[in-house]
Design goal:
Low-confidence stretches: none
Order of helices and strands: HHHHHH
Structural class: mainly alpha
Number of helices: 6
Largest sheet: none
Helix content: over 70%
Distance between the termini: 6 Å
Mean pLDDT: 91
Oligomer: single chain
Number of domains: 1
């Protein structure tokens, strides 16, 4: 791939992820707008969340409940890890960003563990984080744990941006004769 094309792709990716990062990092800790871009991302996160309940449900009730949140974060993290393993840092930045976005999305659910104001998919379902934190004796810390989860997500989003920026810089410094 020509250096200029590789640099342009990385630069465009960095610009897009920077705009998305602003939206993710300024998202409210409550019910969001389902029609927004973050609403779309929430829908994707939700698909993996619900799949996690099914997959991890094979390992008992606790894993069934925690499995939704685990899969929601694990799916993009595994994708990022696969790219990192191959040394493809620009490619790894997108799923790493998604991991951070997913953590900030999850943080809203964690923080709601005690209040249970968020709507669930259907009546009669349990609130995962109310159940989990209740079993662990941490229900009173739901909001603090949600803020901690959000901070982890924010740091992950920023790490993805930094990784892509550094890879863009590396591409810029690479002589035009070297293949990308």
């Amino acid at each position: 791939m020509p250096r200029e094309l590789a640099l342009a792709g990385r630069g465009l990716g960095l610009a897009v992820l920077t705009v998305l990062a602003w939206k993710v990092l300024t998202r409210p800790m409550g019910v969001g707008d389902a029609g927004s871009l973050l609403g779309f991302f929430h829908g994707v996160d939700l698909i993996f969340h619900e799949a996690g309940h099914v997959i991890f449900g094979l390992f008992g009730q606790f894993m069934h409940v925690v499995g939704g949140s685990l899969m929601q974060v694990l799916a993009p993290a595994v994708c990022a890890g696969a790219f990192l393993w191959r040394g493809q840092y620009a490619s790894a930045s997108a799923p790493l960003f998604w991991t951070g976005e997913s953590l900030t999305d999850l943080a809203i659910y964690v923080a709601d563990g005690r209040a249970m104001r968020l709507p669930l998919l259907a009546d009669g379902l349990i609130h995962d984080w109310n159940w989990l934190l209740g079993r662990l004796g941490l229900l009173q810390q739901a909001e603090a744990l949600g803020r901690f989860t959000f901070a982890l997500g924010a740091l992950t989003v920023l790490a993805a941006l930094a990784m892509l920026a550094l890879d863009c810089w590396r591409c810029w410094l690479t002589p035009a004769s070297d293949a990308m």
